[in-house]
Amino acid sequence: MPHSALRPLVDRAPARLRRARAALVTGQPGLALAALGQRAESAAIWRVEALLALGREREALAAASRALHSGPLPPDLAARLRIARAEALLETGRADAAAADLRRAASLASEERTRVRLALAEARLAWRSGQAARATEALGRAREGAGRERWGAALAVVHGLEADLARDAGRLGECQEALARRIELWRSLGRADALAAALADRGELLAYLGGWREAAIDLEQAAAIWRRLEDPRAGSVAGLRLAGVRLAQGELEAARREVDRARAAAGSGADRRRAEVLLLESDLALAGGQAAVSETEAEEAARVFQSLRDREGEARARVRRSQALLAQGRVDEALREAERALQYGRRRPDLVMLAAIARGRALLHAGRPAAGAFERALATAGARPAFRAVAALGLALAQGLGPEDEAVAHALAEVDAWGDRRILAYARADLRIGAADPAPAPAAVVLETAASAGGPLHGLLGRSAAMRALCDRLPRFARSHGDVHVSGETGTGKEQVAQALHALSGRRGAFVPVSAAELHDGTLHSTLFGHVRGAFTDAHRDRAGLVERAEGGTLFIDEVQDLSPRAQGVLLRFLQERRYERFGDTVVREADVRVVTASNVALQEKVARRELRADVMHRLHQLVLELPPLRDRGDDVLLLARAFLRRFAARDGRPCPELSAAAASALRAHAWPGNVRELMNAMRRALVEVAGPALLPEHLPPELRGEAGVAGTLAERVARVERAAIAEALLRSGGNHAQAARELGLTRQGLAKKQRRLGC
Q1: Which residue of 20, 294, 316, 485 is 20 to 30 Å from 346, comparing CA positions?
Q2: Is pTM, for the whole model, over 0.70?
């Protein structure tokens, strides 16, 4: 269409075009598109720029191409269209075609502002191509032109690209300063959409620096602005980055919600937004213990980036896939993926650093020399303290240093201080493996691995089928918002399971345990919900209750079957409403608390005996985890025995004895009515008796050797009889301490005191 033919159309609809331009200037590209309508050929450049602002690069590319082929155009307008088309080409992975368009634009541009746009596009292309010097030179030209024109919007874009270059070079202080200047400029210009983009970029940097709370504030502000503008970047940009923050903090459910919204905004096409969603889904799956799913998502992300010809994006996806393969014990494949990531990301120091860490981890887990990989990661980490700590930890382990070494402890503390729970989990797993250990255990024995590394499963050990099933269910239950009931005999580790649920849930509040025996009717309300000063005679100050102390975390109620009828009613009401009042107060408080309960008898039995309300049982039975007794766990008894021996020997500062075959047979043959607690006490006592390198049957307590009636002092004979009577009572009661105490003519507290004295 000849340019001379454009004027009549402009004259027929000047108001519509003015509204479109005003919407673009004020950062409302969606309104601009609506104002332009479907037949605004004269405003093609505005349409293209609006589509680019909305992240619809393919549509922008098509619109720019149509306009350029519609007929003769004024040279400067043709230059602007080519610049816009180059930006769309760059975003869709066609850097060579983008460079060709920019060369054509350079020969056509005549206006100062068009030359500024050209310099900015050249800087962005050079930055994406890893040519930092060329990008800096182009930015200098753009800054000078924007200064002459007093064009604040262009200066803000300059600051954004300066931040990108500084971040890639590891100059994070400069990056933060440039982003702050960019934010202030967009705020002063009233450009809402650009301000949101700048806040989102600063949020990403703050997360990179471990400022999780500040990052979340910036990202939530960006999302709110974009939602107000009905801009899809609320989910596809801010939402994704916010999901990364939530994930790093261990808030898996919150991260999942953000990723779901971002996926809906991104659609199913093969573009950059979908690839970023896939990367976050890969991270989420790995954090949730679904390594195979994580691998699949990372591989799909790599394919999308490959179709976009984005080698840097593919490098990030390959790093993710390497970590997922490593979690599955597929060390050789993980190593190959890390090496591919190194190749694809070689132009950017931050990607070299990430890929080198992934390669070092794979080598470490394979028992191969890994120092070179971690040294390379350190050399490219720059001013990134958290990743320097990860690389330093890997290097120390590759050099054969152990957990007690100062360098290892310092690096681990630095990673812990940064606060990314995923990275901390990797570091602890590597700490267990070391340079000379074999490859990591498969998922089926992750309980043993995590416990040995001091991980989130709090000492739970096991290879038996029952414990494997528990291992599979724990992460899923932890990610759920529902309350959980843990059922198992006394001594099976119910509180440890509750602690594991809390740690895996990502909840940031405290884990607060309480026994039902402590919830007396007289002080029930004050104990659970707290009281205010003057509420009763001894209430000299306000006091928070257990629920308030557990805010944002987990309240664990053990022996819940022993709650009085009044306490059952109070608990049921709280579980249904999640509201409470301090004793003596009128302020109704909302509680964000997950409740985990435990019992050592089947709640159905308590209901049948009218000792527990049926509605309480049904409320507690939403999510139930059943812990197997030790007698049903096969050779787990030997795994646990050796673990306890190592722990107690380390505490005593002495060598750990080997467990002899005869002693192992005795341990297998015992019924273990006291379960894991009884085994732990038995190993503590046995270690005292061992003088040589091996633990023999004679070192075990008499009841484990079938010698309950052997001679000794009167006190020893009485103690043996008492231990045997307690063990039999617990066995008959199925581990129910209250029932066993009644059978023995003791109070529950008296039984507990006697067990402590007898070591059973």
Answers
A1: 294
A2: no
